[in-house]
């Protein structure tokens, strides 16, 4: 489990998808590929990135050019799920779903507002306001470490 502060979230609507390759080209040119996450649905693309000056400059420029909305003051909690929990037997499936449920319950019962949450078979990414992230991290840590 890790906590990364100083994150920015840029939300692009579907009408601009074709133009976003310019932003990604610039990020790849500068070899900044490990400092951001791209999350896409049919209606939007979100870029969640560390708020360091070089990345901020690229994304602010892109958001102005391609009508993106920037939200800052965010932190990201990334919970890596052990690969053994992803195996397909029933016992591991139950552990996996129980684990996801436990994480969700802790956040819900603590009344922590989640800006975004992304679940994959290998990790959970929670995007929170900076002020809530430390509290969430401390509440989740005992569940994650057992």
Please outline the helices and strands.
Elements: E1 2-13, H1 21-29, E2 36-40, E3 44-50, H2 53-65, E4 68-80, H3 90-109, E5 114-119, E6 123-129, H4 130-145
Antiparallel strand pairs: 1-3, 1-4, 2-3, 4-6, 5-6
Terminal Cα separation, in Å? 12 Å
Shape: globular
- Mean of the pLDDT scores? 82
Radius of gyration: 17 Å
Number of strands: 6
Strand line-up of the largest beta sheet: 2-3-1-4-6-5
The secondary-structure element order is EHEEHEHEEH
Task: Explain what the structure shows.
With 146 residues, the protein is of the alpha+beta class. The protein is globular and about 50 Å long. The chain has helices at residues 21-29, 53-65, 90-109, 130-145; strands at 2-13, 36-40, 44-50, 68-80, 114-119, 123-129. The chain is built from 4 helices and 6 strands. A hairpin with a 3-residue loop joins strand 5 and strand 6 (123-129). It has 2 domains: 7-72, Alpha-Beta Plaits, CATH 3.30.70; 76-145, 2-Layer Sandwich (Alpha-Beta Plaits), CATH 3.30.70.
